[in-house]
């Protein structure tokens, strides 16, 4: 786990997210440090995905600030937020099914000359190197998740957000995804994930936020969240 001594890479202040005229996230505050994994947990419809999309600039949002490494991105469109260091891996491990692994990766370009290259992705995910000529549609769920994370890393993020990264994966692959996220955080990223698999999320994360009806209702150390009654209080149906 992180020693939690790194600088704040993501600072979200008073985030409000809307779908049309309907507000779904209310005055949300969130902080993630360099080298830290943080999970956002809640029931279906609580506002988890909407929060990530709001930070990414996909949904209509209002915020006092969305700071990435000290720069406020709250008034920038989504593509400029990517250039400023925010990458998101949506749920479903999406890839272009008719393109090879190599072609899927080649489509992504970072905003500067620093950071990950396709070779770095293959070094981090050796299985993808062996599959570079395979079509995205032929990959297993775990392989597609590796590809999705690799594509996100090629954008050279400072903040990596993942929406339900364990969705549809078997237990061994879920454990591998958790290990991957810890390793990525160890490279100095700030990692934010939402999960229905709260066991995986709390085992992986340094800290947790619980969200209910679009509002943060608890935040703290993931160990405390695992050992107390928070899971049954905020996640039980």
Structural commentary:
With 237 residues, the protein is α/β, with parallel strands linked by helices. The protein has a domain at 8-90 and 157-234: P-loop containing nucleotide triphosphate hydrolases (Rossmann fold, 3-Layer(aba) Sandwich). 34% of the residues lie in helices and 27% in strands. The chain contains 10 helices and 11 strands. It has a 6-stranded mixed β-sheet, sandwiched between helices. Strands 1, 2, 4, 5 and 6 form a 5-stranded antiparallel β-sheet that branches. Helix 7 (171-186) runs parallel beside helix 8 (198-204). The protein is globular.
Please describe the topology of this protein.
Blueprint lengths: L7 E12 L2 E12 L3 E5 L6 H9 L3 E3 L2 E4 L2 E2 L5 H6 L2 E4 L11 H6 L11 H7 L1 H5 L10 H14 L4 E5 L7 H16 L3 E5 L3 H7 L2 E6 L2 E7 H6 L2 H5 L3
Give the strand content: 25-35%
Q: In terms of per-residue confidence, which ranges show pLDDT below 50 for 5 or more consecutive residues?
A: none
> Radius of gyration, Cα only, in angstroms?
17 Å
Q: Based on the structure, what is the oligomeric state of the protein chains?
A: single chain
Summarize the amount of helix as a percent range.
25-40%
